Amino acid sequence: MSHTKGIFLLVLVLLVSVALAGCAKGPEEQASGKGALKDTGIKVKVHVEDEQGKKTTIEGYGKVAIPPEFPKDIMVYPGAEVREAIMAESGDGCFLRLEARDPREKILGAYKEKMKAEGWKETAASTSGAISQREYVKGNRTVGLAVTDIGGGRMEIQMSLRVK
Q: Does the residue 130 lie in any domain?
């Protein structure tokens, strides 16, 4: 399996896990509270190496930080909480999942302005229901951005970087 396909499958598994966790019954619906999910502040960090020696680091849940090698010309929305970070140590890709309390249009406007200022070109934009997606290209790199209304005045921001 290629490194890119491996990372894609890993991200897909993580996203499905997060979606399923979000479908769990609330504490009031669980018998004696067993199995309740909560933010414990525990940091989970996993290092994966494929057959070719390419390394990927996955960090998620609780208190998560932006990896120091995350590209400086890609905006991380100010004030957003980092929920998940996946970084290929080879530098050919990464994924961030953030949560913010600003309106979707404010978040999208900030990304459009900042990415343009950093030399990125918006190549795709769409909105369908609660999800808005954008794509930015700069040289051999592509950033996919999805902003989703997750209720309660919260927006989830997912960013993926692909390097060709």
A: yes
